[in-house]
Amino acid sequence: MEHNHSQKGYSNKNLKIAFFLNVAFTILEFFAGAYVNSVAIIADAIHDLGDSLSLGTAWFLQAKSNKAATQNYSFGYRRFSLLGALINCTVLILGSIYATIEIIERFIHPQMPKAYEMMWFAVLGVIVNGYAAWKLSSGKSLNEKVVSWHLLEDVLGWLMVLIAAIVMQFKHIPLLDPALSIFITLFILWNAFKKLKATLYLFLQGTPKDINKEKIISEILSVKNVLTVHDTHIWSLDGEHHVFTSHIKLAPLNTFSEIIKIKQEIKQLLSKYHFEHYTIETDLDTENCEFEKEL
After folding, report:
1. Kind and range of the H or E run holding 149
2. CA distance 136 to 126
3. How much is the pTM?
4. At what angle do helices 213-221 and 256-271 cross, to 10 degrees?
5. What is the per-residue pLDDT for 5?
């Protein structure tokens, strides 16, 4: 039986900076939204709250991922990110429901926001989120890259708020604010439900979308003296780091060194998939494996 355990260390300095920037700005955003009387800013504050949770989770897990596996957590701490994702999705969905109630009220009773103050706060939003996105754009880890793209979405959202604020300084269009808000809220809900679906898929140990199970089995079967491949399972710890296990039935062999050679070939074949863990169980031709029916 062969095992492979790769360990990676990440620098979480950029995530830490982006997290504190986002948290501070989110708090300011809620107060500013109430002050300038803009539900668009409040809706975006809920969006940024979700970003703060994502950044906090990413930062925590970047540091946590360096910890070695323990007796209780034999795969390490990577799977904790799924719990974080589930919490993030729940907060975003509940926050969006609250924002929707406020937006409906604003459609029924339109109110003009303080467009001038709203404009300058939007400029601040572009600067803060743009800086955080820039800091993470140089990151090497998948966490940093994904969060960087998410913050770029925030920059685009603030540009929309800025344009709306400029327009409302010249045109009395009170419905523009709730109209922009409903767009932001629907965008948040769409992403939250999409992320929730992906998280639940990983919780249920679905085969990662970026892995072709049949292709891997076909490649293993191409190795000389491999008769069958069965009881193959591929699942993900956190959506980024995957686990592979399988049984292989061998043809009649004469020496133990032949088994070692086959194992080495399969290990070489699997190395290009960068599995976090993999386990290969070899069954001799004279053995009866209870899982062999699962081809």
Report:
1. helix 142-170
2. 15
3. 0.67
4. 150
5. 38
Cβ–Cβ under 8 Å, residues 271 and 244: no
Asked whether the beta carbons of 10 and 65 are under 8 A apart, the reply is yes
| Per-residue pLDDT at 219 | 92
Domains and CATH numbers, the chain: 2-203 (1.20.1510.10), 213-283 (3.30.70.1350)
DSSP code for 270:
H
User: How far, in Å, CA of 246 to CA of 225, rounded?
Assistant: 16
**Residue 111 amino acid letter:** Q
For residues 221 and 262, what is the distance between their CA atoms, to the nearest angstrom? 11
Q: Mean pLDDT, to the nearest integer, of 246-272?
A: 88
The Cβ of residue 264 has, within 10 Å, a number of other Cβ atoms equal to: 12
Asked whether the beta carbons of 32 and 74 are under 8 A apart, the reply is no
Residue 276's pLDDT band (cuts 50, 70, 90): confident
Alpha-carbon gap, residue 131 to 125, rounded angstroms: 10
